[in-house]
Specification:
mainly alpha, 7 helices, 0% strand
């Protein structure tokens, strides 16, 4: 097993720590949303607070990858399915929760990590190998076409020789061209 494959097989401690930080950030956000739900109880109806609670629980399930009712995609449609609400509740009534969900999804999608020197060297080597193999393939294709033309010419000459042999079966030699 080469070092690149080995690095992919076991997650680095930094990656695990980063996942823990993300989970902590989600927990903080959920706490803030729950506080918002408590405010909604005083200003809105109990139904509004229940919707906020359902949306918050659905967000957590989707973000940790454990959906119960939806396909698990990180979209508003899936969030609405997971919360067992109509989508317009998120797009028109609870727009703050929708924006929060989008922000959490964006934060969870980490930027791509830069390539290491070994990976760059491996990529360059693979590109050179690919170019060499393609060139070899092209030359073999050209040789195959040339061989097919030569075989065709030989078949035609063989056919002409057999016809010129006639009934007696004697093959007559063509006169050589003068130089």
């Amino acid at each position: 097993m080469n070092p690149v494959q080995n690095a992919e097989a076991t997650p680095a401690p930094a990656i695990e720590e980063e996942r823990g930080d993300q989970a902590a950030a989600i927990a903080e956000t959920v706490g803030a949303v729950l506080a918002h739900a408590a405010d909604a109880l005083q200003q809105g109806t109990a139904a509004d607070a229940a919707e906020i609670q359902m949306i918050t629980n659905a967000m957590v399930r989707l973000l940790v990858g454990a959906p119960l009712r939806s396909d698990g995609h990180l979209t508003i449609k899936s969030l609405a399915e997971e919360a067992d609400l109509r989508r317009n509740k998120l797009t028109h009534k609870h727009t703050g929760l929708k924006d929060l969900f989008y922000a959490l999804v964006k934060a969870q999608q980490a930027p791509p990590r830069p390539f290491t020197d070994k990976e760059r060297e491996l990529s360059a080597k693979q590109k050179k190998d690919l170019a060499r193999v393609r060139a070899e393939r092209d030359s073999l294709r050209t040789l195959t076409q040339q061989m097919a033309r030569v075989i065709h010419v030989l078949e035609v000459e063989n056919h002409n020789l057999r016809q010129s042999a006639g009934i007696d079966g004697v093959v007559r030699v063509f006169p050589s061209p003068r130089r």
